[in-house]
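Quick sanity check, Deacetylase:
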Amino acid sequence: MIKIAWHELYAHPLPEGHRFPMLKYELIPGQLLHEGTIAQHNLFHPDCVAEAVVRSTHQKEYWEQLRDLTLSPRDQRRIGFPLIAQLLERELRIVQGTIDGAHYAMEQGIAFNVAGGTHHAGSNWGEGFCLLNDQAVAANYLLNNDLANRILIIDLDVHQGNGTAEIFQDEPKVFTFSMHGDKNFPFRKELSDLDVALADGMEDEAYLSLLHDSLKTAFERSKPDFVFYLSGVDVLSTDKLGKLALSKAACKERDRIVLQACKDKGLPLQVSMGGGYSADIKEIVDAHCNTYRLAFDLFA
């Protein structure tokens, strides 16, 4: 059974004025339930991750400032949200959801977190709506508990996974692959094991061809026994922040390429959803739902 991490705090941790960026986290499971792709038993509600597990990835001073809600106003502006207790709890549940999802992926082949993909959070900073790096913490959890030996993180959000790259810059057991807009945020890039920078306005055929070749390289170089995938839909032509020109069909084909490759190789795969900022919320939700629909076609 494919399992999906979801909690009500994913959608409602902030005052009303900040609700729109979070709305998709309520609408995605709602749509999947409505159309019958999933049932309630597919959803699980993660607890908060333990402090010791967070500390395996994030530095002590940064974590304590988050925990004690003492992060400076400047650092809160860098994150983009006011640091309040509910937001921190949301992040802790997201991280645990990705860890739990990794366990479920080892059983079923694939598992999801409706939120997550918080790849801008580095070892000692938060940025771009990201406080803690869920897939980085989960990757370290797998390594530290001898549940994986070599991990590949595939990041196809339109923004570089700078925090993930920084966290694993000296860790040979984790291979970071980021395919992202060259001139997009973050404007100071970190060095992934494989960075593929994309020109503004890139369209379907060029993108998918580049992904096919780059993904093959990533698998050959990493030789993973576990894969994390960040499937942001801010690559769409309709996205307000993306600067690429992909159709929804190409975004779906992108996901199919990744999911099929992992299935063919027998590699467990945890998927976190990442970004999506189209003006029409229906475009965001439908593109994200396509990832789940594909998974249920391939793995269920």
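Posting the structure with no commentary besides this: The domain at 3-299 is CATH 3.40.800.20 (Arginase; Chain A).
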